[in-house]
Design a protein that fits this description.
- This protein has about 350 residues and is of the alpha/beta class.
- Helix content is about 40%, strand content about 15%.
- It contains twelve helices and eight strands.
- Helix 5 packs across helix 12.
- The longest helix has 20 residues.
Length: about 350
């Protein structure tokens, strides 16, 4: 994901205003809240939350398999190996697997050969939920404290692999117990190939290339879903996930729904009720281009300069920094949310 400063966030909001998105939403906010509201607060409070089964050891093994391949930078051999492994792993859990192969131009003119990998459950169901994460890793450790490391690729254990590991375990569980609705798991490529922090890029939207492509070219024509959940950096010890600004703008009721379920499951130390600034991540394009209300479960750390976890875009983002309890908190919350949908 790309971290935007306050002026950059303002520019993004202004661009949305010009496109009419904010004007439409602000003029019909009561209709929007009604449309996105899955249940009334009274009904939600009274609803019995049944914890979904989730195996944190299995999720961890899926994370480790990715990092064992090394940095999964787009166009690399490790990226190709990981794509094949992801496709074959999803096929163990559902026959409905598609690979979107496409080319995209990076900020520096490099043509990236990218693959979005998609697994679907209950493909015939009209009511659907979107779950997503990115599976590529950053080509530059451009936030590393050692300047000598800043052009080295990272393992991306937390930033990429953790979300994918959780989603693969969710896919395994869905193969054992079918949900009442349709579920689409989309793994995006090319999310982290944006320009280095110390280079001034002249290219707009040079991050999140896979989600931009999928949002314009979904795997099913005219694809829609009730809501979406993006997982990004969900494996660090004692991680905290706040109610991020873009999520609260486009999908506030679903954010509150997920955070309520997390609290009912005993994970409120992870899912805190603080609202924090908007960031540009894969969910931004899904919301804007595909118009599926999508929230981002992403690690927020107010003690770091980036506001992300301390090893973000550094060589320290490796498998030693992945905590099974955090994977459990996120995975069980998301899977329980899916099973609660009717």
């Amino acid at each position: 994901m790309n971290l935007y400063s306050a002026p950059m966030i303002k520019a993004v909001v202004n661009s949305l205003l010009l496109s009419g998105v904010l004007i439409v939403v602000m003029s019909s906010i009561s209709c929007n809240n009604h449309r996105n509201n899955p249940k009334s607060e009274t009904a939600e409070t009274a609803e019995k939350i049944i914890p979904a089964p989730f195996d944190a050891d299995s999720a961890f093994s899926f994370v480790k398999k990715q990092t064992d391949l090394g940095p999964r930078v787009s166009n690399s051999s490790a990226n190709n190996q990981c794509a094949s492994w992801l496709e074959n792993t999803l096929k163990r859990f559902t026959p409905e697997v598609k690979v979107q192969s496409f080319d995209a131009k990076a900020y520096n003119g490099t043509i990236l050969h990218l693959k979005n990998i998609i697994g679907s459950f209950n493909p015939g169901a009209d009511k659907r939920v979107l779950l997503c994460s990115h599976w590529d890793s950053r080509p530059y450790a451009d936030n590393d404290p050692d300047m000598a490391n800043r052009r080295k690729p990272i393992d991306g254990a937390n930033d990429g692999a953790s979300g994918v590991g959780v989603l693969l375990e969710i896919a395994r569980q869905l193969s054992l117990k079918s949900p009442a609705i349709g579920v689409d798991i989309v793994l995006f490529d090319g999310e982290d190939y944006g320009s280095p922090q110390d280079e001034q890029s002249q290219v707009e939207d040079d991050w999140c290339l896979g989600s931009q492509y999928w949002s314009r070219n979904p795997h099913v024509p005219a694809y829609s879903a009730r809501f979406g959940i993006l997982l990004d950096m969900v494996g660090a010890p004692s991680a905290t996930f706040t109610k991020e600004g873009v999520s609260m703008y486009y999908a506030p009721d679903y954010v509150n729904r997920v955070w309520h379920i997390a609290s009912q499951l005993g994970y409120d130390s992870y899912f805190v009720n603080d609202e924090t600034s908007a960031i540009i991540d894969d969910h931004s394009y899904i919301n804007d281009l595909r118009q599926v209300p999508t929230l981002d479960i992403i690690h927020h750390d107010p003690t770091t300069q980036s506001s992300f976890y301390k090893y973000w875009h550094t060589l320290g983002d490796n498998i030693e920094g992945i905590d099974k309890q955090t994977l459990m908190a996120v995975g069980q919350t998301v899977l329980t949310t899916v099973y609660q949908e009717k």
